[in-house]
UniProtKB/TrEMBL annotation:
This is Uncharacterized protein. It comes from marine sediment metagenome. The lineage of its organism: unclassified sequences, metagenomes, ecological metagenomes.
Amino acid sequence: TVRYFPLDAGAGGTNGETTESLAWEIAPTPGNWRNLRIRLKVAPGAGTTRTFKVRKNGVDTGVAVNIVHPATYGEDLVNDFDVVAGDRLDMYLGFAGGAPVFSHIAWGLDWTPAIPGEYIHMGTSTGALDT
């Protein structure tokens, strides 16, 4: 099973999407993303691994975390990626191994603007994507 989430859904109550384009958020300004940290409320399930990947324009960025049962926390403090305004961003979640156990998920990323003084506030909508 694969799910896609908007980047701002890390603390939300969504089940994710099976179609990636429904989870896209648009980067409003250029910058650099890094330091992905993920916490599960419940471990993935016996023999199960949860794989999280940040994606840009439908392609893996290299920022990724695997959480293997019985762990509930993982981080990628090594990889990063740059964005420009208009890039489409989302989080991929895949499962491998045993039957996954439902869990609330919280995640966060650090962001540094390419333009000094810029900041971002990302959000999602179930409406049509318009760039």
